[in-house]
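Key idea: predict the complex, not the pieces.
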Amino acid sequence: MNEITLLLQCDDLIRQALREDITNEDVSTNAVMPRSQLGQVQLICKQDGIIAGLSVFARTFHLLDASTQVSFACQDGDLVKRGQVMATITGDVRVLLSGERVALNYLQRMSGIATYTRDMVHILEGSRTTLLDTRKTTPNNRIFEKYAVKVGGGSNHRYNLSDGVMLKDNHIAAAGGIKDAVAMARAYAPFVRKIEVETETLDQVKEAVEAGADIIMLDNMSIKQMEKAMIIIDGKAQTECSGNVTRENLKRLADLGVDFVSSGALTHSAPILDISMKNLEIISNRSI
Amino acid sequence: MNEITLLLQCDDLIRQALREDITNEDVSTNAVMPRSQLGQVQLICKQDGIIAGLSVFARTFHLLDASTQVSFACQDGDLVKRGQVMATITGDVRVLLSGERVALNYLQRMSGIATYTRDMVHILEGSRTTLLDTRKTTPNNRIFEKYAVKVGGGSNHRYNLSDGVMLKDNHIAAAGGIKDAVAMARAYAPFVRKIEVETETLDQVKEAVEAGADIIMLDNMSIKQMEKAMIIIDGKAQTECSGNVTRENLKRLADLGVDFVSSGALTHSAPILDISMKNLEIISNRSI
Amino acid sequence: MNEITLLLQCDDLIRQALREDITNEDVSTNAVMPRSQLGQVQLICKQDGIIAGLSVFARTFHLLDASTQVSFACQDGDLVKRGQVMATITGDVRVLLSGERVALNYLQRMSGIATYTRDMVHILEGSRTTLLDTRKTTPNNRIFEKYAVKVGGGSNHRYNLSDGVMLKDNHIAAAGGIKDAVAMARAYAPFVRKIEVETETLDQVKEAVEAGADIIMLDNMSIKQMEKAMIIIDGKAQTECSGNVTRENLKRLADLGVDFVSSGALTHSAPILDISMKNLEIISNRSI
Amino acid sequence: MNEITLLLQCDDLIRQALREDITNEDVSTNAVMPRSQLGQVQLICKQDGIIAGLSVFARTFHLLDASTQVSFACQDGDLVKRGQVMATITGDVRVLLSGERVALNYLQRMSGIATYTRDMVHILEGSRTTLLDTRKTTPNNRIFEKYAVKVGGGSNHRYNLSDGVMLKDNHIAAAGGIKDAVAMARAYAPFVRKIEVETETLDQVKEAVEAGADIIMLDNMSIKQMEKAMIIIDGKAQTECSGNVTRENLKRLADLGVDFVSSGALTHSAPILDISMKNLEIISNRSI
Amino acid sequence: MNEITLLLQCDDLIRQALREDITNEDVSTNAVMPRSQLGQVQLICKQDGIIAGLSVFARTFHLLDASTQVSFACQDGDLVKRGQVMATITGDVRVLLSGERVALNYLQRMSGIATYTRDMVHILEGSRTTLLDTRKTTPNNRIFEKYAVKVGGGSNHRYNLSDGVMLKDNHIAAAGGIKDAVAMARAYAPFVRKIEVETETLDQVKEAVEAGADIIMLDNMSIKQMEKAMIIIDGKAQTECSGNVTRENLKRLADLGVDFVSSGALTHSAPILDISMKNLEIISNRSI
Amino acid sequence: MNEITLLLQCDDLIRQALREDITNEDVSTNAVMPRSQLGQVQLICKQDGIIAGLSVFARTFHLLDASTQVSFACQDGDLVKRGQVMATITGDVRVLLSGERVALNYLQRMSGIATYTRDMVHILEGSRTTLLDTRKTTPNNRIFEKYAVKVGGGSNHRYNLSDGVMLKDNHIAAAGGIKDAVAMARAYAPFVRKIEVETETLDQVKEAVEAGADIIMLDNMSIKQMEKAMIIIDGKAQTECSGNVTRENLKRLADLGVDFVSSGALTHSAPILDISMKNLEIISNRSI
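Result:
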């Protein structure tokens, strides 16, 4: 993850997470370790998968103590195996203990998303279809989750409501039809944004093509409908297929030749990848 | 969820999530709806499960516009069924559209956790064992996730590192043994906190009992080992069983008679419950 | 300005500005007015121009006291004349006095930008060219300044570095050429964003067309060069002309048939529109 | 600018401005520069003027990456000439690109104010009159703008409503006359503050003198009136002249012998000084 | 306390104090009161003294629930007697319980300061000397403590380092003498600020007079020295006496005819005034 | 004080206190010291007592300038004597001057609390009774004040409403009796928390014992009553005595054999310990 992004977007969130876990002090650690001691601990993979979020993991410790050393034996996007030592962390034992849970909570979640995404991307291999995420992310974790999707080989849809135009049924109704909605959006939105229209029927697809939509989303359509939609669109707009995308039907969606398939499950339902910090050793009893 | 908790702990997080989704403006909505219109939309369940987080859902809209009306047909903890209309939301259509995603992201996640927890709790019915969550929560979502566990029928372990004492192997090593660690914790920590000791062997269990631990955690032990541990402890401390708790082995853990079983999966790997906002209607074209 | 935008993006900035002006208390007002009194004051135009930011003006008082009444006799975008009473504000006199400066600082600045923009837009009338702003805004005032440009009849370029792709010479150099830069951007950036390439020579224009850039910026070119560039581009990309745009040369740029002309001066060098609050009257001596 | 002021007052504002420009990431830069590269760029003056804000310019880059080297060839207050290389900035190219706009937005604005102020101050040379700024600053930029006025040779009036007492017509009306208003202010305000009274007629001037005002402001008076006012005051209070101060009438105001002339235009209507970052070179392709 | 001051300066501090006391939830209250109930409680004085901070007390509850009713039977500055019912608070019982401690912590502290100040002010009655506070306040409580001093009849010295000029020995040494220090301060500081010089010897007093200091502080001098200093100053500057001001020596200081005596003890060592909330009654079992 | 606690909990509060004292700049210092100079100053004890908060004192300067050197000649908990040089601080003179007041405000207050606590603890020597603090702390200073109590030899009660259960009369009334209240608390609160019940009569003490309370507080009882209460409790719960604890009656409370005595005065009414920074010397005139 880019240093500037970490600094401007992530640091405050990580610090906030640390304060969520330590509201006044880490009582257990402070009770038995009144002074700092130099220690080392290993980051161990407990399940095969794709690792993502190593810089966030390291940052958590650096935010607690800039002198903490994190030495990685892998990098984001690598396939890691159960039992593999992925990193060694060296520093004040109290920092290692107090930061452990937050650092792992981020790393496990991001790696879970990357692993699940990679699985889905494999199914699309050989096709022209790109896998997209959605805005169905965990609140206040979007920056981490969208990055994890990329590490897993997926691509990002718009980041949020401000940086992309997507006209849904309600927008269209309010504008009085697809044509008017697209025109209003083109007049209002910064011209650097493409206009996407969500469609549920073939009539809407036609209208969207005529209105000059840049992207047409086929929402919750049957395979049959989508085939017809693709013929109507015929390359005049980019196409995105959305709704109940599963491991099972993903291949068939790709066969339709749509440009994009988007899946909320990448970020909202991927189970975590099991990772732990183990084998802590005291290197030196001297205060550091 | 309690009003004071919403106000002091949740509001800032929800607002932050809204700003994550709207960094300058909701371009699509503002393009086609230059003025407010009174509208109504339904909250529909798309999957059977336990609903949790309705007050957070409503709060999201109230934070955008205090005059939004949310009328619920169910309450937290109810079993909801696919197709069920759970609520009607009435207000400025722009508020309904701009707040939808964040409101649903919270509600879906919290309900997913409650649903998964209820499943696990059912297995424990009839036993004396209580199901606990852990600190393996999504960063900056703990207040929501721990609440959802309760709605699902589970109980909460300590909230964070500040409000509970848990002595792990590293704390024990630093203190020079379980006895000393417990003594140091009792001297240091506010006396209102119970002292929990994490054990991995029967020798450690014995030591913990002798040290006067209030709670003894049996971590990653075999059923056999735990049986022996329970005999050693013999009611002199509360007991918690932790590590790789699954639907499959949960019944056997309960049969051991442990007081508590804790599971990280409740909060880190429960898939969401599918919920959507549908059937938006414009009630009045007049500005409100 | 949209209520949601005010609430999520502006309120904190306005409150911050109020705290910039009142670090502990408004000493003068508190010294002579120990109690609240109901008063009324007029908002008077002191210079002809386009008014912009009335909702921000009102919001400043509402943030100090929600019961303040602001009754407007004009709306954003109106041409206002010297001497015209644009609004009457009724409320606690202390609120009127303490909020006056911040409210006017916003309104004068936004109206100055709208007035300057309208001037420039008039010159473009009849042409197919749209006037754009830039990212050369006053720090922590972008949301207000870009809105004022729109009120003045201009359009907004990308909001910031996150929601638009603009490949400048350095990006191109880093990527090893325009073709590679465009390809990398298309692979990396969310697909909803158009790719703009900044060009300074006709060779670069050609490359940009071949690379499939969505928008080509002609930066600091002579009229002659731009004429040739337009021929090369020939409708295959949108065109933006940038650099030293003045009242004097704007007409000639429009004559070239470029789609967009962007000008930093709209936001960084427009003088304010002179506006003041006058004729304060005490309506009632009773505390409110 | 003082390091402590930068740290306590400016850093948060600069970081906020950076986040205004980068809400999730600098897409263009990250797309083509996945790794850091050491680069160098020049800060070039494009217009003659007074430079102000160099420490703010440098701070912007340091806040993104503390290892960035900024080497200046001039200092705040210097007259800089078109084409002059004012600084060289060396660091991670991504930092140079991502911070450029915010750093320049501050520097251009502050230098514009300093340049305009110096112009006005020149007119006052040889007189006993000091040029003052006002509270008509851009919201959330006062710390920068008041500093720029000083660099330009002007002086600062009170910083805000909390640190100076200025009794205007409304304060006086509320108190029941100038005498009472001054007495109330003296009783209420910390004694370290001088009491200033705003007057619009010669009667008010007399009253203010009698009330023992420390400073008397002559607001929007004609030259004739001010001459008489100066005779009435006769050194018994400091004098400030305010309202529609222009290059044209400034000399005549000074000839009156007033102590201070205040001008809002210094901060609200000075055009920026044109400055750019140019000639970026990659020094090393190796990651730094 | 002024509404605007409460809103701009106090609300965030009070909310922060509430979050200091409730990091996730009020466990005791939520355990036994799952629903709101309307209740009433009395604010009882347990010690004679001067009450100060009633608006802060009420605000604490209003910030938790705007519908809470606080009905006062006294006002800031009143002498209250042991056993006196000072207010009745009516609202959701959970709000009354959860806000009690923070509300009282403010009220007790502010009333303690007002009570102690009033005591000292009484000693000065009949003299021309005014009692001042200092910057020796409790961190992040200055706005409350300086207000309490005023309620007790004292006056405020400068609010902080930004709004008053005080030249101490180190400033004088750095400038090269009192004369230069005063000249530099006059040139640098906004002209609305008076210049105060701290002196420890009679020579310094002479220099300060000659330098034209507005205020001369006699720091830690003997009564004898101060008598001579007063003769030297002879009305040419205001005089402030500081250092180890006690109930015992205060009268003698006043007899010297100094304008001001400042005492840090007012804010840093006044014991609290004992106050409690008692006699809570449930008015209605119905949810509100 | 632990580094992690300083970083996560204290730094923001200290910075906030610095901004309370410097809202725009330290005018006096900046007027006479336009450039940095290396200086040194001593921290001198002016009153015998227990020192507490040295790391907070040092942190204040480090937050202003990380290169400041603070060399201590004592440590928290030491008995310090009038006139003793406790530390030498070396750094930019402007940092030493601008940070002095805030650093001392913390140190004096914390040392005052530690000194007062040590006094009280001495009285308990030889008894089995532990001295506790309460939640009667100064708003937004709890982390500092509770630490100071520990330095003085006292122990901490629960940190806040979230991390301890205390059932008072109102909770009991709401639940319908002590038995039900304890049962509800045990069902609701995380099991790691002990349940404390506040009692005012012997009947309540009996009920609390029967309900299985972990801790029983004897609130405002007479010595006689407490003697009887201790017999009723008979070791079945821990005991805490509270209410009007003074130097005079503390010994008698200890003689009762209660486990804990809690006193609000430790944090709300301890006078400060007088400490000052003196003997500032300029070491080098060169800028640093």
